[in-house]
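ok so I'm stuck.
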Amino acid sequence: MVKREQNGLYNATNEHDACGVGMVVNIHGNKSHELVDSALKVLENMRHRGAEGADNKTGDGAGIMLQIPHEFILLQGIPVPEKGKYGTGLVFLPKDEKEQAGILSIMIEEIEREGLTLMHLRNVPTNPDCLGKDARATEPDIKQVFITGVTDVENLERTLYIIRKKIEKRVRHKDFYIVSLSGKNIIYKGMLSSMQVREYFPDLTQPYFTSGLALVHSRFSTNTFPTWSLAQPFRLLAHNGEINTIRGNRGWMEARESVLSSPALRDIKAIRPIIQPGMSDSASLDNVLEFFVMSGLSLPHAMAMLVPESFNDKNPISEELKAFYEYHSILMEPWDGPAALLFSDGRFAGGMLDRNGLRPARYLITNNDMMVVASEVGVMDFEPGEIKEKGRLQPGKILMIDTEQGKIYYDGELKEQLASARPYRTWLSTNRIELDTLKSGRKIDNRIAGYDRMLRTFGFSREDIERTLIPMCNTGAEPVASMGNDTPLAVLSDKPQLLFNYFRQQFAQVTNPAIDLSVKN
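replied:
not stuck anymore, here's the structure
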């Protein structure tokens, strides 16, 4: 297990990012190797979004998510059942044979406990010669597992999720990681540069390796030191940016685990912790998204719940949608960015920005019904006449494609469906107690003798009174103040200080160059 710890003067929590994300989707789900090749070109054209070590060969992480290439697997001589009736995925394992055998025995035990069989273990072809020395020094042994014996096809994804979580709970080894385990999609990733993904995994260059959608990610150290397991995409998500509220998000999720229940997932205790320890902010968000989806929520429902949009005069929304967000705010606090998020479960593929919109992403749709979404323009070359539609993802808004129905869902339609699916306004009005309406019948004299003297005695300044206390008393609102604070540290002062002066709020002020320039000009 990767640990987030301080080694000497190095602290993993000081890492930041500048990732690149991209998505290529055939709207009608038509699978081709050309789409795989195009997605790899998108990744390679975002080379500047990733980082390399001093040897110019060790990448800090890159990868690609694809639909499972059923025909390609059959051509490898692996007798899998028909498409959708087996699960597969890549697994990182330690190179030590004894340690590997111990982990595999646990995997087999948990797979068989769910009534399935580990039918085959394939050695994934790799080309370690392209790696830098640091990446090669930590390179895992990569196997592809095939799980068969499926009788309940409808619940295959959920069963594989339960198996994976149980294995993760039992195996805590720094070189072990289940990259993906699914009946729909598969992920190839590693401690690679954008240019190395194609070269390191020869599978991706084979003409029969086909897909109807692909997500790619070029990683620049997403709040953690680069490792093989922390490359993206994750199981459902590719994320450009960072989650600035991550400590609170993780803490609240852990706090509510004891009261969580899900009929679809049976005993939650068996798959806890929901958030895998020692991972990045992106991985934690992916863990929670996956948990909600496996519990029965749709992808857009889970995304809207985790990353809600803001609403005001510039972004008015319906009363029904306000009720949707207010209801879910009781259950889940926002995972705030800056963040651009691309997601897919193998059928649906989509993208959204967090409510601040500080990690832009643009999309275009061609006349051949190909959609390309990326964190910047120019990742693929198109003639102007080929482009049917283009635009950008909006803050808090979702864009999604259903590759089975061949349909694009824009935010308005998705949010209307979500808001009208349940009587959220009724639930709120009948179950919510407004504290402002409660009356005790008592009258309390709030006058304080020697008010001015006591303020000085307890160290309140004029700014504390005018900017903090008065607004709070008059309006009940939180005070608005500058994020910058250059006052001396209270702990170093020889003067008496208010208790809360010894504490500083944690925040990350991250914007994009274009925004910075507009502010300076």
